[in-house]
Amino acid sequence: MSRRNRGAAGTTFVNNVRGPTSALTSFLNERGIRRANPAPAPVPAPAPSRSPSQDGDQAEEEEEEPAVSQPTRTARLTRGRSSAAATAGSSAATSRSESIDVTGVNENEDEDDSDSDDDKVNLVPISVSVRTTRVTRTRAASTAKASKAAASSSASASKKRPRKKGESDDSNDEDFHDITGFVPRTKFSHKGRMPQGSNKIEFCSRCRARFTIKAGTTPAVDDDDGGLLCPTCTGSSSAGAVAPAAKPIKRPRRKAQKAEIESQVPSLQDLCIQKIANCIEDVEAFGDISDISMDKICKIISRNRSLNTETLQLFLDPRHSDLSLHDCTEITAEGLKSIAQFCPLLRSLKLKLCGRINDDVLNYYADHLSRLSSLSLIGPILLTDKAYAKLFETVGDRLERFELKSSSRFSIDSLKALCTHCPKVTHLRLGDCNLMDDDWLTPIAGLANLRSLRIRNPEPDRLTTASMVSLIQAVGSGLEELELKGCTTLEDAVLVEAIRPSCVRLERLNMMDCEYFTTEGVETLFKDWTTNRGLSYVNLENCVMLKDEALMALTAHSGGTLEDLNIKGMDEVTKEALLTLSRCENLLRLNASWCRAMDDEVMEVLVKAAPRLEKVTVWGDHRLTECCPIRKGMKVVGREGDYIDLRFI
């Protein structure tokens, strides 16, 4: 039983003990909200009769009492029962004042902690006199109005929504929800939400405020700067003018292209090759298969790093004359030596990533491969000049093709041995040789039968323009292919003074990463170049200084013979120059990546003009949309928004 006994209305007791109250009770008390239908208050005990003289004395005592503010008295009454306070307020409105004895009230009675049972039984009520003032009457009236409003709202809530089984009283208290700003979850139903992707967030051009453009509406436009205006700046009359809803644009391109790619069922041969490559460890022999199929299997297992000394035996056949191994990283020196043991009739040998080949293996090739005429070594980091010299001396005039890449030990002595003992070399390809300089070009100039010359990625500032001009003037009359990839220091003199007058039989020209070639130099090379019948392959990738005149001169000269063109990175080229690609009627492959002027119109003209076009690479060409025309069987790689399957690139 609580120590605070609130049995009588308008009274309180001496043993007031404060206890914990809920947050809801405190909140309702602060807002002046009471129960809608409070229980009837018990009738107060009749006060003892007093004489008129005593009443007068009591009135004088009240007047002479020290000034105690009305809020203080009201606070004392508030600590009593709320219903008693309401009853006292209503009774105060009917009677002017009540004569109640307040003598003997101790202000420190709230701190009395007596726990005896006698105090609980023999409780002495202390009555408090309430002097009715205008403030008291106003507060009493507001309290009564709040009680009536709470009662009416509770009754309406009970009528609107019946209480569910097992539901608490707080769930029906809609007044509490309205006061705290709580919104029911039902107002956020799925039907009331806006569909995702239908709205846009913009900023007002006047007030810079952020506002939402709803689907199907057209925002107002500022007449001064052409920016969008928010509804506040526009005004309520013209804000949010509803425009006719546009039909969604159907874009079946992605699904159609995906279906087209997935519909390309691989052939039975490709499926068998894939199966064999995946189970290469369990294959004992290939049997009678073509060289093309064997090369496909070799590429697949090289990509998977499954080509090792054991699986190498599957590709060694005494009848083979050509052998290409695309990844020799896992093949030991003994495995490489077995190539000459099992394939003594080899004419062409190509070893990629052959970092384990050494002098003993190369000497073994020189002694046992009696028909070797083409040798390609990529990454032979262990071979020395002595092994190269012995190979060139042994092979002699039989050697026609020699390719060497990524070697730091191949020196000018080895190159001189090559040019001296193998004068019939027709294809010479040297790339990523760290020791290459101008002195290397002098021995190469003595190869009179040279038809293909590739010099790739020399060390910076090692090759000069003057030495390159002398080399091309010496061997250019027989060259059909010239590659100067990565020769960043070469200038226009190589084009004007060497290639134009000498390379009359040239068909393939690679000037990739030659940054110092200018538009004037390229235009001079191709303009009125009547001694040359036309080029079939041109690579101008990353020649960033070239402009429209260079491309126009190229298409005017080689438009009828050009089959493969690479203009990647030529950002200065405009749409007018790209439209001249319509002259290339025999074009098969085009790389126009990062040519910003490439758009749907250029692609349409190109597709109509080049019926044999197979592949177009357009990375970074943001003006080319998915609506551009494409011929069946033609690949467009790098277009934004396309579904691309790397298996078919």
UniProtKB/TrEMBL annotation:
<dbReference type="InterPro" id="IPR006553">
    <property type="entry name" value="Leu-rich_rpt_Cys-con_subtyp"/>
</dbReference>
<dbReference type="GO" id="GO:0019005">
    <property type="term" value="C:SCF ubiquitin ligase complex"/>
</dbReference>
<feature type="compositionally biased region" description="Pro residues">
    <location>
        <begin position="39"/>
        <end position="49"/>
    </location>
</feature>
<feature type="compositionally biased region" description="Low complexity">
    <location>
        <begin position="72"/>
        <end position="97"/>
    </location>
</feature>
<feature type="compositionally biased region" description="Low complexity">
    <location>
        <begin position="127"/>
        <end position="157"/>
    </location>
</feature>
<dbReference type="GO" id="GO:0031146">
    <property type="term" value="P:SCF-dependent proteasomal ubiquitin-dependent protein catabolic process"/>
</dbReference>
<dbReference type="InterPro" id="IPR032675">
    <property type="entry name" value="LRR_dom_sf"/>
</dbReference>
<feature type="compositionally biased region" description="Polar residues">
    <location>
        <begin position="12"/>
        <end position="28"/>
    </location>
</feature>
<feature type="compositionally biased region" description="Acidic residues">
    <location>
        <begin position="107"/>
        <end position="118"/>
    </location>
</feature>
<dbReference type="Pfam" id="PF25372">
    <property type="entry name" value="DUF7885"/>
</dbReference>
<feature type="region of interest" description="Disordered">
    <location>
        <begin position="1"/>
        <end position="197"/>
    </location>
</feature>
<feature type="domain" description="F-box/LRR-repeat protein 15-like leucin rich repeat">
    <location>
        <begin position="289"/>
        <end position="556"/>
    </location>
</feature>
<dbReference type="InterPro" id="IPR057207">
    <property type="entry name" value="FBXL15_LRR"/>
</dbReference>
<protein>
    <recommendedName>
        <fullName>F-box/LRR-repeat protein 15-like leucin rich repeat domain-containing protein</fullName>
    </recommendedName>
</protein>
<feature type="compositionally biased region" description="Acidic residues">
    <location>
        <begin position="57"/>
        <end position="66"/>
    </location>
</feature>
